[in-house]
Amino acid sequence: MEGGSLTVGATIRVPDDGYRFGEGPLTLRVTEVLSVGPFEGRVWAEVRGHEVTPDGTLRSRARFAFVRLDRVRVVPPAVAAPAGAVVVAASAEPVAGVEASAEPLGAVAAAGSARAAGTASR
């Protein structure tokens, strides 16, 4: 991971192959970083937040995602945005600065999949 950090309040973009569970790219405003650690040979984080729609608005329902940190990009804030909207820019920077625990996240992934299955809406 290069540049930026995965923090509460950040808006992140993750390609389809860089997160579980859902389909298509995910743009998420992070409200909580629940855990970070190794899983299947990569560093992953379980996060909760609100999806950002293509028009820049936030979905009201929170969702969970299990994201591969080497695939996460922090989306820079837009220069000008309508009042109350979160607008995402076309380019994004990789994230860095998240420390991984040595504890495997297999149990977290299994628990996260159950939660994500109930909260993922597309």
Task: Report on the architecture of this protein.
The chain has 1 helix and 7 strands. It is mainly β. The chain has one domain. A 7-stranded antiparallel sheet has the order 2-5-4-3-1-6-7, covered by helices on one side. The longest helix has 14 residues. The chain starts with 10 loop residues before the first strand and ends with a helix.
Descriptive keywords:
seven-stranded antiparallel sheet, 7 strands, 38% strand, mainly beta
Strand portion, in percent?
A: 35-45%
Order of helices and strands: EEEEEEEH
Q: How would you sum up the major sheet?
A: 7 strands, antiparallel
Count of the domains = 1
Which strands sit side by side, in order, in the main sheet? 2-5-4-3-1-6-7
How far from one another are the termini?
A: 28 Å
Oligomerization status of the protein chains: single chain
The overall strand count is 7
Q: What radius of gyration results from the CA coordinates?
A: 14 Å
Write the layout of secondary structure elements.
Elements: E1 11-14, E2 19-20, E3 26-39, E4 42-52, E5 58-68, E6 73-74, E7 93-94, H1 106-119
Antiparallel strand pairs: 1-3, 1-6, 2-5, 3-4, 4-5, 6-7
Tell me briefly what this model is.
This protein is mainly β. The chain has one helix and seven strands, in the order βββββββα. The chain has a seven-stranded antiparallel sheet with strand order 2-5-4-3-1-6-7, with helices on one face.
